[in-house]
């Protein structure tokens, strides 16, 4: 997760989502009330599912009719034309040994207290986290050396960092966020950044994010460029761009609501492909059977955007799912099932095939690397790395409370040898600490 509040992480299918700056400061509650965390988490899950039931009762489809055609310059676009079947474009021949053991240590916290890790660059040499002494202090970690970025703020944070050490995120000013880019100790507001959030930056310096009210996913071509709105399929009422691959492919979600639901369509009938159904203008592009809520979406660097395949699970209906990270055409995300079990799932897509798969053994799925390895949290609340078949549990670093502890990995380097994440210290009443793991 890119914010320390586990509650918004569970509520991901709803309006509040974990990568966003929290509207409520739960950080202090995590420190002061760790022993009630598991109970709050269960309650949050139930609330999410209950709200999901109410929202999902109104069937919704997404229409791409009358949208812009593919941009000749290669910028992401939406189209009324059905998307073709995905073509293989990413290397899947790399054969690298999966790690078998790891060691972990806490990242430095000047002044002591709580800390929270957010991002790791592809090389594993840069990371971002924040501390909580006299406010929220963003920090860039580079090969063991830390640099404070600016001064502590109300809810400042750096959500992504590239291999050149350039980070993006927000500072909180007045009643809303301002999108920023940071390098070293200095940060600067992005053009058009007021009321916006910068979520990710790739190694070419392209930045993505969205508006604070999530009505417009955005792309900045550089730190000095004005943002451009990413095109949305007809019927989408909210959206956010969460990550961008090296080749410029962007992932995130689109969201529909009852008020924006096109009429006269059968929501229960899934489309034959994630790209939509053939037809004339007015064709409805369905979220493969999803109703209402949030739907994972991809904006390729060239060509029209498309819905990602809805994950499936035996005996449940997954109605909410989104895409949170991308690397080498591997996409990681989150899904929630509306039903008696209030189930949540980690999900991975391969853009070569367009197929979705649930990740066994993971309750949370966060970062992903070029091999498709995923950093997250196991069902028994330990930080983990998985390749989709094997699950490597990461060291707890501190004493772990079996009843209330929650440890998770947030991001993994491209070589799979460095991870960052967050763990609880049971000896300090569950105080959360940002950590780095080294694996071999």
Overall description:
- This protein is mainly beta.
- The chain has a single domain (6-439), classed as Methylamine Dehydrogenase, Chain H, CATH 2.130.10.
- 7% of the residues lie in helices and 39% in strands.
- It is built from 3 helices and 30 strands.
- The protein has helices spanning 6-10, 27-32, 37-56; strands at residues 62-63, 102-106, 115-120, 126-131, 137-142, 145-148, 157-161, 166-173, 176-183, 186-194, 196-201, 207-211, 217-220, 228-229, 238-244, 250-255, 284-285, 294-299, 306-307, 317-327, 330-338, 344-350, 355-358, 362-368, 374-378, 383-386, 391-393, 408-412, 418-425, 431-439.
- A 4-stranded antiparallel sheet has the order 2-30-29-28. Strands 3-4-5-6 form a 4-stranded antiparallel sheet, with no helix packed on it.
- Strand 26 and strand 27 form a beta hairpin.
- Mean pLDDT is 78; it is low at 2-74 and 258-291.
